[in-house]
Specification:
Blueprint lengths: L1 E4 L10 E4 L4 H17 L3 E6 L14 H25 L7 E6 L3 H8 L5 E5 L11 H11 L4 E4 L14 E4 L7 H14 L3 E6 L12 H16 L2 H4 L5 E6 L3 H9 L4 E5 L11 H9 L6 E4 L3
Parallel strand pairs: 2-3, 2-5, 3-4, 5-6, 7-8, 7-10, 8-9, 10-11
Antiparallel strand pairs: 1-4, 6-11
Length: 299
């Protein structure tokens, strides 16, 4: 593999790592990553893979000309990605490094996540005829990465209008959502926007037919307050709007995400008979939200 450093060393030893494959979605991901790197004052590392995917059965071996074409195409993709990153990070741009990688991208990213602040990928890529579906990459890294994973869809939400919207975080009432809540507060503080903390207190919706829902709602309101306790003192600059709904988490977060610039959820949450797994929620949201989304895994 080859790595080119195009600016001074980053401010921290943990860079934001963005994967790019030449698709429009991956360039949106790079734009978002550049803005986030500038916000966090850390280095942005952009990587593309030119590894040839192995399939079932024997196929024609790539020629030297094929390999050279892949290398030049990878360099073109990296050059465009760096241009996009510098254009997106107005003001004080982050240090940017690029890497032309010869490994399969998914295992590389999972391994690199051990030393990364955040992995950033597009929700889908160019398809099987190029370097593989980035959709499969995004799903794999959100399940197995050792750091938070940002998945960017058809928009980077870095324009002037979107950047004024709040950050939305899903709070499920368990300790598993604490890392997501903490990251959401930090993102809101650094972006100088408010925070919407949503707690879906039932996994069904409809007309209340059973007595006792008011008491349950009071209990769930107390649960949400408990999970947010302490963050107000640590982030006094972040205004918080609490949203408590008796609805399915996926639908509630999806509806609320229309007014957010970023959605933050944990990689898993309540399980068993208490409710649906937040893992299922995060997986469903990956395919449906339009704004960027961060899935937070505990290291």
């Amino acid at each position: 593999m080859t790595e080119k450093l195009t600016a001074s060393a980053g401010r921290t030893n943990q860079p934001i790592v963005a994967a790019v494959d030449g698709s429009a979605t991956s360039y949106h991901a790079v734009a978002w990553a550049a803005v986030d790197a500038a916000v966090h004052r850390c280095r942005l590392h952009i990587v593309t893979s030119v590894a040839i995917r192995s399939g079932i059965g024997l196929g024609p071996m790539p020629t030297e000309a094929d390999v050279e074409w892949l290398r030049k195409d990878g360099e073109r993709v990296l050059a465009e990605a760096e241009r996009v990153a510098r254009a997106a990070a107005v003001g004080e741009a982050p240090a940017i490094s690029t890497e032309l990688n010869l490994e399969q991208i998914t295992p590389y990213l999972i391994d690199r996540s051990r030393q990364a602040r955040t992995l950033v990928v597009g929700s889908r890529g160019l398809g099987a005829f190029r370097r593989g579906l980035l959709g499969s990459v995004s799903m794999a890294v959100t399940r197995h990465a050792h750091c938070p994973v940002a998945v960017v869809h058809s928009t980077s939400a870095t324009d002037a209008f979107s950047s004024g919207k709040p950050v939305l975080v899903g709070v499920d009432g368990t300790a598993n959502s604490v890392p997501a809540t903490e990251l959401a507060f930090e993102e809101a503080s650094r972006r100088k926007v408010g925070l919407v903390a949503l707690h879906a207190w039932s996994d069904s919706s409809g007309i209340d037919l059973l007595p006792g829902w008011d008491a349950v709602r009071e209990h769930e309101d107390a649960v949400l307050a408990e999970r947010l306790a302490g963050f107000g003192e640590r982030y006094p600059d972040v205004s918080v709007r609490r949203v408590l709904v008796r609805d399915m988490p996926v639908r509630s977060l999806l509806d609320e995400s229309e007014g957010a610039q970023l959605v933050v959820v944990g990689s898993h949450g309540r399980g068993g008979f208490a409710g649906i797994l937040l893992g299922s929620t995060s997986a469903a949201l990956l395919h449906s939200v339009e704004c960027p989304m961060i899935v937070v895994r505990e290291r």
